[in-house]
Amino acid sequence: MRRAAFDFDDPHFEQRAYEPWAAYGQSKSAEVLFTVGGARRWADDGITVNALNPGYILTNLQRHLDDDTMRAFGVMDSEGNLTPLPHYKTPAQGAATSVLLAASPLLDGVTGRYFEDNQEARVVSDDDQPGGVATHALDPQAADRLWEYATDAIR
C-alpha cells in the first residue's frame, strides 16, 4: 500500500506499462481506502470495518512467484529451499491481528483504522520507514472517490 496510491486515471494499466508491484501496492491502497469509506458509511448502523497487515509470512501465495524473485527477496537458497528471514512470521503469528480485530472487546466501536502487529499502525509519509500506513491510503476524499468508482463499475 505504501508503494502506490490508487491511480484513478489509469487503474487497469491501460495507458502505462504494467508493473506487478505497483499493481499490488495500488490494490492494497484500495483495500485501505475501502475500509475508510466503509467505516464512514456504516458507522450509524453499528458496523465496524478495519484493515490490517498480517506481516511477512511464507504461504501458498508465493507459489505465483518465480524462484529468481524468491531468491531476490532472500527467502530461497540456491538449491530451492525456503529460508524465511528473521522478521517473517508463522501463519499463526500472522493471523493474530485478524483474530484481535474480529474478537477483542477492546476494539468495540473502533472503525476505519489500519492495524499491524496487534496494534493500530502509525501514519507515515516516508517510504524508508518500516511498517505503518501511508497517508494516501487514509484520505477520506480518495475513499469516497474510490467508493463511487467501484459503485459505478458494478452498475
Folded structure, characterized:
The protein has 155 residues and is mostly helical. The chain is 36% helix and 8% strand. It has helices at 20-42, 67-72, 91-103, 140-153; strands at residues 51-53, 114-116, 119-120, 123-124, 133-134. The chain has a 3-stranded mixed sheet. It has a two-stranded parallel sheet with strand order 4-5. A hairpin with a 2-residue loop joins β2 (114-116) and β3 (119-120).
What is the strand and helix layout of this fold?
Elements: H1 20-42, E1 51-53, H2 67-72, H3 91-103, E2 114-116, E3 119-120, E4 123-124, E5 133-134, H4 140-153
Parallel strand pairs: 1-2, 4-5
Antiparallel strand pairs: 2-3
Low-confidence parts, pLDDT < 50 over ≥5 residues?
Answer: none
Shape: globular
Radius of gyration: 17 Å
DSSP E strands, number: 5
Give the strand content. Answer: 5-15%
Characteristic terms for this protein:
mainly alpha; three-stranded mixed beta sheet; 4 helices; 155 residues
Short description:
By secondary structure, this protein is mainly alpha-helical.
